[in-house]
Amino acid sequence: LSDRIMSHYGDTPEGMVESCMEFLRICVAEHFNDVVISIKASNTVVMVRTVRLLVKEMEKEGMAFPLHLGVTEAGDGEDGRIKSALGIGALLADGLGDTIRVSLSEAPENEIPVARKLVDYILTREGHPFIPGKEAPQFNYLSPGRRKTKAVRNIGGDNLPVVIAERLEGSFETNPQFKPDYIYCGGSVPQSRDNNIAYLVDANAWNPEDKNVYPAFNYQQMIELHHTVSDLKFLFLPYMAMNDEVIAALKLHPEVVIIAQSNHPNRLGEYRAMTHELMNEGLENPVVFFQYYQETKAEDLQIKAAADMGALIFDGLCDGIFLYNQGPLSHIVVDTTAFGILQAGRIRTSKTEYISCPGCGRTLYDLESTIARITT
Prior knowledge:
Blueprint lengths: L2 H7 L3 H17 L7 E2 L5 H17 L6 E3 L7 H17 L5 E2 L10 H13 L38 E5 L15 E3 L13 E5 L10 E6 L3 H6 L5 E6 L5 H9 L3 E6 L5 H14 L6 E7 L4 H17 L5 E6 L5 H14 L13 H7 L2 H9 L1
Parallel strand pairs: 1-2, 2-3, 4-5, 4-11, 5-6, 6-7, 7-8, 8-9, 9-10, 10-11
Helix pairs in contact: 1-2, 2-3, 3-4, 4-5, 4-9, 4-10, 5-9, 8-9, 9-10
């Protein structure tokens, strides 16, 4: 950005957009329309907000230039894939973007397959069934703040988003660096439990005498939820089950944390509709998003989960993430992916973040070995 733009706007999305618009106005004045806009950042929050704002400003001035999307200097391995899918996926999901590049600090031929998987996954939502809903009037799409919620234990409010993991088959392995905040264990609680982890158990198997264990209800158990005494309760809730009874119960029970569920082809759309319905009803229950997959490769899980969570994170709607993968991937891979998504969205840091530029790095030195030496 020029000194003039920096002095007026600072290093902000608004400054990036105004700088871009100055050039576009010249192009329009000179009747030169063969322009594709590439406006990127290594910070996913900045990248998404900048593109959203740019589209709005172009619409104001009657412009419709195509967009090239990318998260620059995204990194390598898991980090590069998650970061790219999070930022690019959030914009593609909103119908923004005409070309993309996944910028990996790896061999250049690795980029295209990842980009293709991301685009193909987003396109599976095309032509999806209609989702009824009404946008909350207080929501600011261009610069959203975090949705106001009441803190329940360490979920919601000003707390960092939590990670919930499942251990339904009885294996409770964890990586000390990426240890889930909560573990859902279905109908039985393990005898040996980690004191640093809280547990969810199905409501009909919950014992109030079990320390650090909390009941999880489904939407057909609203009467049981009402009569159960616990300072924290979880409710598995699909959007289409949000009837008057459920809304009334949530108003009576601020101690309930919603675990949002969806089988809709456009899962993101239903989750957005649900959180906006909560805002319209004045409800401040925290929301954790349940994401279900059946992947056999870690890369596929990383791309899909990040693409599904991106817009929810950038819209300020995420109080937690619950990834469940039915397949051969280890629990540790799934847990690491969940933490990686929160870090890529800049809402929870769990490890050192490395910024590496594959463009100049590839021509000046052995990029991959240099990154490996720095990060190990």
